[in-house]
Request: fold
Amino acid sequence: MTAATEPSTVDGASTGPGVRISDLTVAYRTPAGELPAVSGINLELAPGSITGLVGESGSGKSTMALAMLNAVQQPGRITGGVIEIDGLGDVLSLSPKQIRAARGGSIGYVFQAAQNSLNPLKTVGKQLLDLGRSHGVEDKRALVRQAKELLSRMGLSGERVLDSYQHELSGGMRQRVGIMLALVLNAHVLVLDEPTTALDMISQANILSIIKDVHAEHGLTTLVVTHDIGVVAEVADRVAVMYGGRLVEQGPTVDVLRAPSHPYTRGLITAIPRLTGDPDVAQPLPGRPPTLGTIPRQGCVFRERCAVYAAGAREDCETVDPPAYDIGAERLVACHVVEEER
Amino acid sequence: MSGDIEGVGIVKTYKARGDVLAGQTVHALRGVDFRIPAGGAASFIGESGCGKTTLGRILAGLETYDSGRLSVDGVDLSGLRPKKREPYFRRIQMIHQDPYSALNPTRTVDAILTDPLTLRAKQTGRPKSWIAERQREVLSLVGLEPDYVLPRYPHQLSGGMRQRVVIARALTVDPDALVADEAVSMIDVSLRLGILKLLRELRETVGVSVLFITHDVATARYIGADGELYVIYRGEIVEHGPTETVIADPVHPYTQCLLSAIPVLHGLERPGPDRLTPTEPLADSQSDDGCLFAARCPFATDRCRTERPQLGHEGGTEQEHSCFHPARRHVVAVSA
Amino acid sequence: MSTTVEVPVANPVVPARRTRFLANLWKVLRRKPSRMVGAFIVALFVALGIIGPWLYPENLPKSADLLAGPSLSHLLGTDFEGADVLAELIVGSRYVLTAAAVAALVTVVVGVAVGLYAGYRRGRPDSALMRITDFVLTIPGFPLLLVLTTVWKFESALQMGLVLGLTGWGGLARSVRSQTLSLRERGFVEAARGLGLSTPHVVTRELLPNIAPYVAMNLLIGVTTFIYSQVGLFYLGVLPYNSTNWGVMIQLAVNNGVTQTGAGLSYLMAPLIAILLLTLGVVLLVDAMDEVFNPRLRED
Reply:
């Protein structure tokens, strides 16, 4: 167990471990049978990279983030796949004891709505000590020192914050406390689920730059899960787009934003109102995102909202689930039409 | 079409609760002036806690104000008895942020729309058959299929559809204005623009004016590029002018910080060269003396810390602003 | 107008019509066997309460066999006078059930009305009503009833129910008020006010349906608690035996030495088990209330 006994690992030299997710499938038991919320995901997080996982509600992105900790809740169940983290092994085959140590230990996790995930009855400091105790940290002083250092790096007074209750902190401050708690035990992999939802633009910009800073300083491998392409554009090196439990496109952020390949990615980017140019360039996406029960069982999951499919129905879109085609330049796209026209 | 809405010097204070600030006066609005012409668009932008939500609630009659003048069609509402005032507030309908709590979960869309329409029919002496007709009409106006949504309960609809039902319900009373407070922030990204587009189109199709309250300047621009933009900071308007002018040429450092905070779509855009961040986060302890933004402003001078600037056109700007040192800075991302 | 119509992507759910309450109830009950059992038990007791007294003559025939155990002629044995216990149980159910039902009804009506009004109006009416509620809550119900029995003989179940109900609504009023306070901040209540809908409309159409499951549970559970408090009163012997009911049966069984000698055990056990059975039925049924009133849970 990495204890907080040593001074912080901020030596600039280390880079985070690589993470390889292969063929991950998570299913939920429903009255209509077991339905896959995440199916056959292959994703590699390069050592020291920030990856943005984008998707709408029901895309499976949060389920996937939980799977990184092997913490999918009932009635969900990881039905297959491997999540291999360098130096830790396959997360999905760790013993319950090992996985408990890894959560909050080498894998830091900032929950969705971290603003509200603190215990309202305990001070931040008390919760920090609870975390230390549950991970067998002996040197409490070092733990507190580490926490204060992290907080001051994020522009907060450690002394004051550790003595505060949740309600005494603003949304942006709570989010930073969440990041501190995720990193204080020297995590190497950081997973952030919707880190900026419910924050206003200025707090969001602030949190995003903090994420970039701690990522670099601590040598992390980071996964940012969000619905907001803007967030990904600001922080991530690579972007992976999820829809209906599938990964429909992935590649370097700049390239994907400049020239999105998958019709869904294209639609999402076109639907963002911008500050310059003709406002009418922005166009809404038709239809609505599928829920667990309405994801098509066969063929491409996006076809019902797809402009390309609407322009001329193709048979393989209806019958064959498109695999992730490699279209070069480190980009993968799960679309028959894109592959064919290449 | 009538329905000009005007506010002059609207002030609202609260007594704070909680341990730290208990008993202290919180200035939610410190004398705000605005005007929304019939069928027009006005956007209020600012951080959380800047008072923009309070302003929207005051306009919708959900909250009172301490002083100032609020008038609809030139009629000063402050002087009216509650009974006389109510019909005016009914002409300003609120679109809540959260479509999940804005619809009663135990009632079908049919029932949700029937109630206000029944009242309306009674008031205007229309026959019962009008209710069902009008129900279908407002649903089509918001782009919903009446046969599909009427028999359903809110939880059976997507977030986007729910927000459309909320808008349809507001339209049942033929309002002059819609107050939309962060109306899309809880809706799936692929559906947001559809709602924004709807609000924009309703301005033309039914002549309703839209007051849009948000922290996201880009959505404000989408709805009301031809309207007015008000930037609120700690209960005060710090910059106000035509939306496109304020976005393209902001002169107040606070506006510039807000615009700088909008994520840059790297690959499609390059960040503006003068991107600005506040020197400090917003805190309750910041001084009420001088310019309210001085504590966080990278350009604050001694004058800013002691003297309160007033809204004006100092420096010959097209928009009004309250900065002693207005300067053009290129903070908005540029297309790559 | 070019707004995109959001077309549902999968086969739409069968349109939920304004199905009638009973149809909903039936649908929800059928979902779990335990609920059906609960409903059956409760229905059985209700039926007993209604038709019971007509099944037997006013003065039950006495056999010579005193405090006998169960037999074919006396399924639950006999009492100390040789009367059939089953018959007594059935005849006695009416008083107990009526009083409990009246008490629960009074509790719910007063508690909900006070709670809703106080929570919705807030301010002065709220403070005034809550002071009254606190007063009702501080009345020690049991001792008060003891005192009341000295002046009032509770010959009719209605009187008994009324007194129990009027002293017992405080807790419900408090919790309905706090639910109302949080509901009135919800968007749909604000919207209803903004649309100019009347206060009675807001209270009965917007607020009430949202607290209905809670109220229904209180009604059901109220019935069982009020049975216990009545039986307690009769057991203490503070009330006259001028009517046959379960509490009197227990009291007489104990007074006639059943607990010492063990003879006539079924005489003692029959009313106790009846109470337990009814409680079990209610508990099984309560589980369904949330789903009956919440359209989201009602779905399959």
User: Anything to note?
Assistant: Chain B touches chain C through 50 residues (CB under 8 Å).
